[in-house]
Amino acid sequence: MRPVLFHIGSFPVYSYSVFVALAYLAGLGYALLEARRLKLDPVHVVDASLWLFVFAIVGARVMFMIVDYRRFIDDPREIYRIWNGGLVFYGGFIASVLAGVVYIKRHQLPLALWCDLLAPVAMINLAVGRIGCLLNGCCYGKFAPGLWWGIVYPPSHPALGLAQMPVHPTPIYEVLAVLIIFGVLVLMSRHKKFQGQVFWAMVLLYAVARFILEFFRGDPRGTAPLIGLSTSQGIAVVAGATAIIMLAWLYRKSVKGSRAS
Known about the structure:
The chain contains 8 helices and 2 strands; from the N terminus they run ββαααααααα. With about 260 residues, it is mainly alpha-helical. α1 runs antiparallel to α2 and α5 (about 110-135) runs parallel beside α7 (about 195-215). The longest helix is centred in the C-terminal third of the chain and has 30 residues, at about 230-260. The radius of gyration is 19 Å and the shape is globular. It starts with a strand and ends with a helix.
């Protein structure tokens, strides 16, 4: 755990903020390379990526404020202290998708093609960003006594420090999961059968991974109404079901199109 990476004079440079910035740059780098491969305008990549990044941060923060609202009631100044952690992926994903659709439609770009291009970017962003979570001490796992790969946070950790017991290294679990998903998406993008396949495959694969990972999380998760799952699990169920429906529909549509031609 290293919330502050270093100081510039008396100014602290927070690990969470650094890795959020690195996540954006890593995703942008991949998107530009993919745009070159597909012969797409790199200007749109840069512009769209910036809009998506801004809306992702805002959406992720708003979702976190909903899930862990007590923190902000006790101290409203926490609303802008993003460097302390507190971004929920699904909140950022939903906000960035909406922003992306608006941008793509406004510039009359092919929606499915651009969604496929940007889908792996989300996994790169998440993989790099979760390293910041690990260093910051947020998104921690449940207690796991005797787990040889478990991690013990220092006494300075606000929630776990006094316990001094190993917990599941859930940020590392998620990094590994999304890197695997990223690899699958990259391969799929080279051999996809229809436009939109990569995007909806990402939604489905991450929904499954996130649903499972939530069982190992120990930080405040919120609860989805009526179903007794965490907020992210509830969203994952809806997202996964939607992705299955969309993949089936797009596949059937592509088959009918190939027969007609």
